[in-house]
Write a structure and sequence with these properties.
Blueprint (H helix, E strand, L loop, with lengths): L1 E10 L2 E11 L4 E5 L6 H8 L7 E6 L2 E2 L5 E4 L13 H11 L6 H10 L16 H13 L5 E5 L7 H18 L2 E6 L2 H7 L2 E6 L2 E7 H6 L4 H12 L9
Parallel strand pairs: 3-8, 3-9, 6-7, 7-8
Antiparallel strand pairs: 1-2, 1-4, 4-5, 9-10
This protein binds adenosine-5'-triphosphate and magnesium ion.
Magnesium ion binds next to helix 1.
């Protein structure tokens, strides 16, 4: 399980994460909600070990998160890909980084799960659609079977129908593959449909953390209550039932 213990981090001399603690059991989904500038991407960088911490620690099963122990799916679908390389080259790169051989059978299986035509993998990232590129980005994140996958606003570049479809494919793969998902978003509808637990980040601090069922019915913090009631009035939580 992922443990984030009282981490504090600075950006440009300013503290942008303060005393943040989170827990995410293997195979489960923790969704971090928070408005723009709350520190979500900074938290992602801290969990990935890309950012020095001023205090606290990040661990997986009580040991430091190993290199390659977590994979990232970014908001910008093509950002994971080198424009000069075929998608296949970029997708297999995490295997090489771990010293593992290419695994064509796994690649085929994941392509099926993500409804990606395997022939697309011979193309360059700018030659395929945004929706396909985002699913290829998920494929790249999953290829080396990391125990933890971090999604930073994974669907926001996609249209509403494609969002729903992609979210469903990811959820099915998560059940099959068993990875834990740490997902950062400001989409409460997505959180309501997919989270096991929710943490609300505000101005660099955890305002509230709770099992999803509890958060969406009885949020405890004033800010959590305002998020949930705004989402209800926008009809964004209807997806929970869908
Ligand atoms: N490289 C940097 N140098 C200085 N300040 C930074 C840097 N990166 C982020 N910040 C500041 O840290 C704070 C948190 O930023 P962060 O990118 O983590 O927010 P976020 O929650 O991911 O926002 P968004 O939803 O817009 O992506 C912001 O105030 C931001 O201006
Ligand atoms: Mg961000």
């Amino acid at each position: 399980m992922l443990s984030v213990d009282k981490i504090t981090a600075r950006r440009g001399g300013r503290v942008v994460l303060r005393d943040v603690s989170l827990a995410l059991p293997a195979g489960k989904t923790l969704i971090v909600l928070g408005e723009s500038g709350a520190g979500k991407s900074t938290l992602v960088g801290a969990v990935l070990g890309l950012l020095p911490l001023c205090a606290g620690r990040v661990s997986w099963d009580a040991a430091p998160l190993a290199r390659g122990g977590a994979a990232l799916v970014m908001q910008e679908p093509r950002a994971a890909f080198n424009p000069r390389l075929s998608l296949r080259r970029s997708i297999c790169e995490p295997l090489r980084a771990k010293g593992l051989p290419d695994d064509p059978a796994r690649l085929t299986r994941l392509c099926k799960g993500l409804e990606l035509d395997e022939a697309l993998l011979d193309w360059r990232p700018w030659q395929i659609s945004i929706g396909e590129a985002q699913r290829a980005g998920v494929l790249r994140a999953l290829i080396a079977a990391p125990p933890l996958v971090i999604f930073d606003e994974p669907l926001s570049a996609l249209d509403a129908m494609t969002q729903k479809h992609t979210a469903r494919l990811i959820a099915t793969l998560q059940r099959e593959e068993g990875f834990a998902a740490l997902t950062v978003t400001h989409d409460l509808g997505y959180a309501a449909a997919h989270a096991d637990s929710v943490a609300v980040l505000r101005a660099g601090q955890i305002e509230e953390a709770a099992p999803a069922a509890q958060f969406f019915t009885t949020p405890q913090s004033t800010y959590g209550q305002s998020l949930v009631s705004a989402a209800i009035s926008l009809g964004a939580l209807e997806r929970r039932a869908a």
